[in-house]
Amino acid sequence: MVVHRSTPLMSTEPVRTCVGCRQRAAKRELLRVTAGSDAHGQPAVVPDPTATAPGRGAHLHPTVECYELAVRRRAFARALRHEGVLYTAAVEEYLASRADPQ
Q1: Cys bridge to 70: 20, 27, 46, 98, which one at CB 3.0-4.6 A?
Q2: What residues are paired with 31 via a beta bridge?
Q3: Which CATH architecture has domain 15-99?
Q4: DSSP 14-64
């Protein structure tokens, strides 16, 4: 089970639920993802780190553990209300780039 230690939630701060671990956290601590398309034009889950992309979004702790839970649970398609297959490679690449110490 993934346990995230975060700051106590304040009543004035927006709160969202991670689609991976299903824990609530402050919106600023989570990565927003949206439904979009990959480089080949296939429907995909796209990271939206600035949280400015139009359309429905879902939130995820920016960790590989929560990403893997969301993929295993097929949570992205459900949260984004998308029928069919959504490729998640873009989110995986984004998380890997954040983890690199370069």
Answers
A1: 20
A2: 60
A3: 2-Layer Sandwich (3.30)
A4: -EEEBTTT--EEEGGGSEEEEEEE-TTS-EEEEEETTS--SS-EEEE-SSH
- Quick check: 73 and 23 in contact, CB under 8 A? no
pLDDT at position 6:
58
Instruction: Spell out the domain ranges in the chain.
Output: 15-99
pLDDT band with cut points at 50, 70 and 90 for residue 10: low
Write down the pLDDT at residue 99. 78
Rounded CA separation 69/15 (Å): 20
The whole-number pLDDT of residue 53 equals 95
Average pLDDT over residues 2-23: 80
